[in-house]
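Researcher: For the annotation table, I need C-alpha cells for 7-cyano-7-deazaguanine synthase. Please keep the output clean. Sequence:
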Amino acid sequence: MSESVLLLSGGLDSATLAYTHQPDLTVTVDYGQCCADAEIQASSQIAGQLGLDHKVIQVDCQSLGAGTMAGRQGIDLGDAPEWWPYRNQLVITLVAMDVVRRGADRLLVGAVADDQSHADGQAKFFELMDSLLSFQEGNLRVETPAIDRTTEEFVREANPPESLLGWTHSCTASNAACGECRSCKKRQRVLTRIY
C-alpha cells in the first residue's frame, strides 16, 4: 500500500504542500537549528489544522552547522548567511531512515524554484537524492511537486486558507520572526501579494 510522507518545516512551501497533497504522515526535523522550536510549533499547528499525523525527529547536529541557522559565523562556501553545509541531504536522510521502516514509498519535499540558488535546492540535487534513496533497500522515492514554481506561484495556485499559512514560520535566525532575514522578507512579500 502506497504511503507518502512530507518533510514539514513549517514554512510556506511545505505547509502548502501539506494542504495540496494530504500526506499520510508529516515529519519535522530538529537537527539543532536555532529556529527548531518555532518550526515544530508551526508544523504541529499546520498538521493539526489539516488533520494530518505529525512526528518530530530530534538529532543534535548543531555543532556541525554554520551560518545564522546554527547561530554561528557563516562560511564562504554558501551564498547566503543561513547556509548550513549539506543540510537538505542531512534532513532528507534522517527522515528517510525513519520512514522507510514504516514502508513509506514517497518522501515529499517542499522545494520551489526560489530555492535554486543553493546547490541543494536545485532540481538536479533532488533527482540525485531520489536516485540514491530509490537505489537502496526500501525503494523510497523523493518527490518535489512544486520545484518548477516560485513560492508565490505555488501558493497562489493552491490557494490554501490564510488561516493555515498564518501558522507558518520562515525565519532562519530565530524562534521569533526577526523580520530582517531573507526568509522573513520572502514570507511577508508572498503573503502581502496574495492576501
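Researcher: And a one-line annotation?
Model: The mean pLDDT is 95.
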